[in-house]
Structures are given as C-alpha cells and as structure tokens.
Amino acid sequence: MQKYLYLLVITTLFAIPRDLEAACSKKWRAIVRDGPSNQFERLKMIPKYTPLIIEEIDGNWFRVKGYDFEGWVFSKSVSAKMNCMISLGENEPICVGKRKTRSSRVSLSEGFKILKKELGCNFVQDRDGKRFWINSIGAWPENQAKLITID
Known about the structure:
Layout: H1 2-13, E1 22-25, E2 29-33, E3 42-47, E4 51-58, E5 61-65, E6 70-74, E7 78-79, E8 84-87, E9 111-118, E10 121-125, E11 131-135, E12 139-140
Antiparallel strand pairs: 1-4, 1-7, 2-3, 4-5, 5-6, 8-9, 8-12, 9-10, 10-11
C-alpha cells in the first residue's frame, strides 16, 4: 500500500510540467482576474502579445505573472506557442544594420510577438500585424526561454 501511495505522489508531482513558464496573451484584450473563475474580480485588461510567466494551473485557468501584475487568466486567452516581449520604459527601437526598424518610440505597455532573435535585436510583430526589428536591450522577460504546448 505504501508503495502505491508513493507512486501516486510522484505521479502527481510530475503531472504539471516543470518547464511551464513562458507564454503570451493571444486575445486582443485578455482579462486578468483575482482568482480562477469568472466570478472573481477583474484586475486588469492586458493587450495582445503581453508576455506572461505561468506559475500555476487550476483547471482552465492559469495563474500568471506579467511585468507589473499578477493574476489569473483563462487558458483560451493564452498561448505558449508564441514568444513575446515588452520593452522596459521608453526605448529607442532602432537596430543598427537592420533595414526595417520601427521609427517611433516603444511604450512600456506594448507587447510584441518575437518572430526571430539576433544579438541585441528581435524581429517582432505588433498587435496590428506590423513587422519590424526592435532593440532587445531592456526587454522583459529577460529570458524568453522555453516554449511549450498547452493545447
């Protein structure tokens, strides 16, 4: 009996993948709530391509951490197949040696889907579908690490 209980505990520990961390909001506006259901208070609306760190899964809800917020997001509003970033503070987006760069400044709340990475620069897409190179210095999360599949 003790052997089966031990096996059950070990199985439960590994039921949620340990590498579950990097994700992005995929809806035009995703709702961050105070708990894992629609009954909980709305804390914030986040725009498409906001980078998220998934910290916990409760049914169809993810407890996430963003750069300046924490809360729960419905799983259908999140994709772990994308890699996203925001720029910390006002940032000059120019990438030296790249032709297609953004001409205007980047704001803190703006998220980008990362399409390609090179040293110091990322080729990104904004929520309107525009693609360009942007300076990756001062990006969050600093380590746009593992991409996982939740679907």
